[in-house]
Amino acid sequence: MLLNHGRLEDIAVEEGIDALIATSPENVTYSSNYWALSQWIRRGPQTYVVLPVADMKQSRIIAATSLIDLLADQDVWIDTVQRFGFFQADRAPDLTDDLDKRQAALYDLQADPSALEALKRAIGELKLEASVIGLDELGLLPGAWEELQAAFPRATFKKSSETFRRIRAIKTEAEIDRLRSAAQITERSIAAALSKAKEGATERELARAFHTQGILEDAMPVLGCIGFGGRGAMPNVQPSDRRLENGDVIRFDVGGRYQHYRADIARNAVLGTPCERTQKYHSALHTGVAEALALIKPGVAAKDIFLTAVAATRDAGIADYQRSHVGHGIGIDGYDLPILSADSTDIIEEGMVLCVETPYYELGWCGLQVEDTVVVRANGVETFMNTDGRLQVLQ
């Protein structure tokens, strides 16, 4: 299961919340295992998950009739479904396939006229009219919040997108397995791209090789920053027809999505013999990540990880190194808590999955970046990486 039930209950009690309602794609899938296609490919489609904290067995999914076929074909843990809206799906007189039968049963459910009307019915049936309801504001359409408040004047609605982020910060073992796979697929995809890194190859050619390998391993393309030479200094570089030349640094800041879970790692290679400065700076960035990883364990302040990474990078050779952050949590979203920054108030906890990074961008020269993904265990970190992040030299 993806949802960390125990953490949800603890945080809800701490915040005085009686029920949580997920509305954004990440929180809907995290809360229920239900992937509602339309939510993930365009803005606006509504899907909700209602989670009564005192009795999670009463949780329910509110789904568009046009998407309930996916409910029949996915491993959701919630039994109660409400559908809304019209969608025509004809059926043969005699259904024998189990999937067809499950779909037919869902199509036979009562249909509410809209997502919001279905949510109002759920709140009423669950007797939450006078409760404190944590409502994920990120997936709602304009005016929905006000309409709910008007419909339930005795209820207190609290914005809860940050509450969901707090819950998601500690991963279940099922999530950790997916994140480990995502990171390692990304490593193999970088290797596939580098196999094409010959003089004259283009950034696009490496990107195609990278994404193709990911797709072959069931990871869908999401992040593909691949730049040569001076283009690698663009933090968000997108592959172009720039051709690889001898001496070029290749910067990867990349990751796919595997079973809904994200990867985000960074590696560097040089075609030919790297110059002394490239070796020095990359070694300093590598040291910064290594020192940060050595510090991480439960109870450590995120800001101390930031200070350690920056200081270690400076001491190792980039005297004026500066960063806004040196990493972040990762999960079903690319940026989960914690944030490893100077002003972060986050404290590291066991079960967090972190991307720890030390990027360096110098316009007119190149970009260099080391980024690893790890999970926090009781006494330190378990790395997901099979490569060590050192500068790769291609001949």
Topology:
Elements: H1 5-15, E1 19-22, H2 25-32, H3 37-41, E2 48-52, E3 60-64, H4 68-72, E4 80-84, H5 98-107, E5 111-112, H6 115-125, E6 132-135, H7 144-151, E7 156-159, H8 161-168, H9 173-194, H10 203-216, E8 219-228, E9 249-258, E10 261-262, E11 265-271, H11 276-295, H12 302-315, E12 325-329, E13 336-341, E14 353-362, E15 366-377, E16 380-383, E17 392-394
Parallel strand pairs: 1-6, 3-4, 4-5, 6-7, 11-17
Antiparallel strand pairs: 1-2, 2-3, 8-9, 9-10, 9-11, 12-13, 12-14, 14-15, 15-16
Protein name: Xaa-Pro peptidase family protein
Pfam families: Creatinase_N, Peptidase_M24
Domain Creatinase N-terminal: 7-170
Provide a descriptive summary of the structure in words:
The protein has 395 residues and is of the alpha/beta class. It has two domains: 5-168, Creatine Amidinohydrolase, Chain A, domain 1 (3-Layer(aba) Sandwich); 173-394, Creatinase/methionine aminopeptidase superfamily (Creatine Amidinohydrolase, Alpha-Beta Complex). 34% of the residues lie in helices and 25% in strands. The chain has a seven-stranded mixed beta sheet. Strands 8, 9, 10, 11 and 17 form a five-stranded mixed beta sheet that branches. Strand 2 (48-52) and strand 3 (60-64) form a beta hairpin.
CATH fold group of the largest domain: Creatine Amidinohydrolase
| N-to-C series of helices and strands | HEHHEEHEHEHEHEHHHEEEEHHEEEEEE
Sheet of most strands: 7 strands, mixed
Across the major sheet, the strand order is 5-4-3-2-1-6-7
Number of domains: 2
Structural class label: alpha/beta
Protein name: Xaa-Pro peptidase family protein
Organism: Hoeflea poritis
Domain Peptidase M24: 178-377
Pfam family, one: Peptidase_M24
